Every structure is written in C-alpha cells, then in structure tokens.
Amino acid sequence: MTQVVADVTLTTFVCTAAWLDWATSRIPNWLTVGGLAAALLLRALDYSVVHGLEGCGVAFVVALMLYALGAVGGGDVKLLTAVGAFLGLSEVAGGLAAIAVAGAGFALVNVIRRGLLPLLVLNTFDLLRSWSTLARGRASTLKSPGVLTIPYGVPIAAGTLFWWFGQGVRL
Question: For the chain, which end, N or C, has fewer CB atoms within 10 Å of the first or last residue's CB respectively?
C-alpha cells in the first residue's frame, strides 16, 4: 500500500511542479518543501529515511553545482532535492541521468521550434567552458541578457517519472 501512495504522491508532486513551472516560470517553495516532507514521511513509514536523505543529499549537491554554473534556477534545485529523497541513494544517479536526457531533448525541441539551434550550440559550449574553468570567465547564466531558458520542471518531471516507473523504483 505504501508503494501505491508513493507512486501517486510522486506523480502528483512532479506534475504539479512541471505545470507551475510551465505556466509561471516558478516552482514555489510550498510545493518543494511539501514534496520533500512527503518523501521523507513515506520513507519513514518504510523505515528507509536514511536512504531518502542520502538520495536527497546527492541530488542537492549535483543541483547546487548546476545552479552555481547558472544552468538551473533555485526552484529547480529544490525540486531535484525533493526528487532525490523520493528516489533514494541507489536510484538517484539513474534518475538524474534520465532527467538530463529529458532536459536535453526538451531544450532541443524548443530551440528547433523557435529556429534557434545555433544559439543552443553556443550556449552549450559556453556552459561546458564555464564548467571546465570553474566559472572563471564570462559564461552565460540564467540571468544573462538574451539567454534562452526552458521551464526545467517539465524535464525533471518527465525524467523522474520515466525512471521511477521504468525501473520499478521501490521505497
């Protein structure tokens, strides 16, 4: 029964975040904090809180690095952290990889639709250069003028659900 509740809770949580990010370009704190609390509560019922906290920590570190590079926003960091608590340590790496693939695909579809493929290539190289030099330089960030952004909550939701249901993740 706990697994069914976890399936419904996670699905509702990430789909709500995706919808709000798409509609408002924001993922509110009440949602991310509530999602994290729900994940840890469900894990407490299953006696796996430590596993959830470990996944949460790994996701937070990865998301914080992306935030420091200017690749994601603060709401995305909090959403990824809560998703990590749902996934747990053993599934967080695969989940983050699925999210990255979903994000790349979503970005590619958006730039092709807008006719901006060259801009995507330039921004990608700029991000990689920034990463390789630990952001010493003039890399584009989400706050740079004219930068193309996407509501990353959408690929976070898609990648998370793909991994959760595709891999049969269990609490």
Answer: N
